[in-house]
Design a protein that fits this description.
Strand order of the largest sheet: 1-4-3-2-5-6
Number of helices: 10
Number of domains: 2
CATH topology of the largest domain: Rossmann fold
CATH class of the largest domain: Alpha Beta
Helix content: 25-40%
Shape: globular
Number of strands: 9
Largest sheet: 6 strands, parallel
Radius of gyration: 20 Å
Order of helices and strands: EHEHEHEHHHEHEHHHEEE
Distance between the termini: 57 Å
Structural class: alpha/beta
Oligomer: single chain
Length: about 290
């Protein structure tokens, strides 16, 4: 199988896309920060089944990291990533330098409201989504894809990107696919490599606790009581809990009256911060 072409500049990326466009081919984009795992490959395979041409971007975006976060330590495994993308049949890897994406004098960011201010990730990472939205908007204008795909593990991020794309009338279809998990329920994440053996063994209880909460909510138990019990269980297990919240699955607002529900979580164990979320069935009526 042929290795994907590698574009390091916007001009090179656009030359490839222009040739595909001239041939009338549909183009899909899979934005990533590299350190690829099975979840990323599932995204590419989903796109491969729908589009003749698939681009995977690999760029560790500095603007979505706060000063106290792990930008310098974020895993970078470019050669291994390209091997995985070759096996997945990807056409092009777009791997620009920070200077290509943010040339000297760059000052523009995207101002956000709505799901970017839901008192979830934004409570702990107040500058994060501005960085995410800005880089995704740049990728959309640089690659001009017909469709872009994101995993639902970063559910608030997906909501922010979908809202931004609609609000700015960007001609890109944004889709999300379900979180890919280990056999014990742990959501796949590039940051899982930071878990010690003991913490890795403990980590699946987060998903298990969310499942228990979801079952109780679906059975009609009172929301606050269920969430309080879940928070206590997670804290007693040794995690530092950032949040366990039930929200409207469409806009991340309050759950009362929602047509779909989402349970979202972030917790720390050791030096590793884990996030996850699951769909929650609507409560059964008496």
């Amino acid at each position: 199988m042929n290795a994907p072409a590698i574009a390091r500049t916007i001009a090179d990326l656009r030359a490839h896309v222009g040739a595909w466009r001239a041939a009338g081919e549909r183009v899909a984009l899979v934005p990533t920060m590299g350190a690829l795992h099975a979840g990323h490959i599932a995204l590419t395979q989903h796109m491969r089944a729908q589009s003749p041409r698939v681009i995977v971007s690999i760029f560790v975006n500095p603007t979505q990291f706060a000063p106290n976060e792990d930008f310098s330590k974020y895993p970078r495994t470019f050669e291994a990533d390209v091997e995985k993308l070759t096996a997945a049949g990807v056409d092009l890897v777009y791997a620009p330098s920070p200077e290509e994406m943010y040339p000297q004098g760059f000052t523009t960011t995207i101002s956000l409201a709505g799901p970017a201010h839901a008192d979830l990730e934004d409570r702990f990472r107040p500058t994060h989504f501005a960085g995410v939205a800005t880089i995704v908007a740049k990728l959309f204008t640089q690659a001009a894809p017909d469709v872009a795909i994101f995993g639902q593990k970063d559910y608030q991020q997906l909501a922010v990107i979908a809202r931004m794309t609609r609000d700015l009338d960007l001609p890109v279809e944004v889709i999300g696919i379900e979180t890919v998990r280990e056999s014990d329920g742990l959501a796949l994440s590039s940051r899982n490599v930071y878990l010690s053996a003991g913490h890795r063994a403990l980590a699946p209880m987060l998903h298990a606790t969310m499942q228990t909460c979801a079952l109780r909510i679906a059975a009609g138990d009172e929301f606050d009581a269920v969430l309080d019990a879940g928070r206590i269980a997670i804290t007693k297990a040794g995690f530092t809990l950032d949040y366990l919240e039930l929200r409207d699955g469409d806009n991340l607002g309050a759950p009362a009256g929602a047509k779909k529900l989402r349970l979202l979580l972030a917790a720390r164990i050791g030096a590793t911060r884990l996030i996850d979320n699951i769909d929650v069935p609507l409560p059964r009526r008496a």
